[in-house]
Specification:
alpha+beta, 8-stranded antiparallel β-sheet, Umud Fragment, subunit A, 4 helices
Length: 201
């Protein structure tokens, strides 16, 4: 078999493999949702692709490389961007205000209604610790000390991230604002389970 014939037969396959490899390396990264911090928007075990090159904006769902200060180990977590560099956030009885402007958070409506109904006791029936945390919470969104009224000013090149399941999410209220280089990309496409294939908004 001549070299020209080998290139003709195998060239497209090799090229396709190289393109897929480049996209995986520079553009897309696969991620698996672990835990319940993004309920009900994203489910535990859900798999998706994040786009590394995406411009990060407020309310985007992003993949963050959380670094454990004690061990130095990295762990990819999925949260929602609430505050951008330079923003001042204020929470007052579950009302979010950013730079003096009130913002609605419709992605929280379902769980906030359940919080008002029974402090999410039925929703968290699968986890006793979650039930205890929600039962003692003064609001759906509180700071790391349990205060429903708090404010945060975000430094340059940092973001304030939170999970949608606020009572049980470990996020910027606990770890602080995350630097830009911790953000791996924006979650764009959920591909597993098959019945949950969707664009992530």
């Amino acid at each position: 078999m001549t070299f020209k014939k080998i290139v003709k037969e195998w060239g497209p396959i090799v090229l396709t493999a190289l393109v897929i490899f480049a996209l995986r390396l520079f553009v897309f990264t696969p991620i698996r949702v672990e835990g319940h911090s993004m309920d009900p928007t994203l489910q535990d075990g859900e798999r998706m692709y994040a786009v590394k090159t995406a411009h990060i904006d407020r309310l985007d769902i992003v993949v963050v490389n959380k670094i454990d200060e004690q061990t130095g180990e990295k762990k990819a977590i999925i949260k929602r961007v609430i505050g951008l560099p330079g923003d001042t956030l204020k929470f007052h009885n579950d009302q979010l205000t950013i730079n003096g402007t009130k913002y609605s958070e419709p992605y929280l409506d379902d769980y906030k209604e359940k919080f008002v109904k029974d402090h999410l006791q039925s929703t968290y029936s699968y986890d006793k610790n979650f039930q205890l945390r929600a039962a003692s919470s003064l609001a759906f969104t509180v700071d790391n000390n349990g205060n429903p009224d708090f404010s945060v000013t975000i430094p340059d090149n940092h973001y304030f991230i939170m999970g949608d399941d606020r009572p049980v999410s470990g996020d910027s209220r606990e770890i602080g604002c995350v630097p830009t280089d911790w953000i791996l990309g924006e979650a764009k496409l959920s591909y597993w389970p098959i019945d949950k294939i969707k664009l992530v908004k």
